[in-house]
Write a structure and sequence with these properties.
By secondary structure, the protein is of the alpha/beta class. It has ten helices and eight strands. The strands form two sheets. It has a six-stranded mixed β-sheet, with helices on both faces. A two-stranded antiparallel ribbon has the order 7-8. The longest helix has 19 residues, at about 165-180. It is globular and about 80 Å long.
Length: about 290
Amino acid sequence: MSSESYTYHSILPTAPGPYILGVDEAGRGPVLGPLVYGVAFCPVAYKPQLEELGFADSKTLTPELRSNLLSTLCSDPDNLAWAVRVISPQAISNGMLRRPPINLNVQSQDATVLLIREVISKGIQLSEVYVDALGNTTTYQSYLSNLFPGIEFTVENKADSKYKIVGAASVAAKVTRDACLEDWVFDEGISEDGKPNNFNLSTQQAGSGYPSDPKTKEWLAQSIEPTFGFPNIARFSWTTVKLILDKSAHPVKWTDEGQASLIAAFETGKGREKDRCAVTKDLKLISLGTL
């Protein structure tokens, strides 16, 4: 994966609807790598079979079992399907550092809405949607219900351990994120041996990628380039990264040769012209005593 965000959809199922759909994410907290939102969906009539497939919160499963479950999710294309929205570290940071900022909750909400809309646009009739979410679930549930009238939404904490369809979405999101990290390609260039500068959490000894992980902190401290900062795997908006940049990166001084004259142009006048800047004079705008 590189620095671009993208969406992926599996083969569209052909079984008649209506369908249920689950939503979950992987990678919300780490300082390294993308945030991945996943959805899984199947016909309402397929619920009994779904219960027997072993889907659960991906965090409770081994990598091998998660991989096998994704294969299971792909094993019955007539009934089962999934999709993911991969939000790159750059997109996350750009949103959070812009003015006004787009915080992670809003970016997560946008990814969820995008995936649901794309599934509906492909002709899938959704009747029930289950969402794993943090924070005020009642407000979020009302927002989604108003946005998609006719669909029954259930938004709960730990929904991935309560509803199998959300567990399936959790598996799709987690396996996708792991694959992104294993196949990461740095935009910054190639290694000394001329090969693509790939990144892998295990081979790079970067730990879990979470900011509290000592190995991740050590990798960040060793990977900083004083002038250019970190590779595109890092989320620049995370406090962990900001602190290292403040401590170890070269300071930057922004200068504007015309700054003094620009300030003077917008300084306020006196008397009748009080609170009016010089620009108004240049435009021949004057104050009237009476109308």
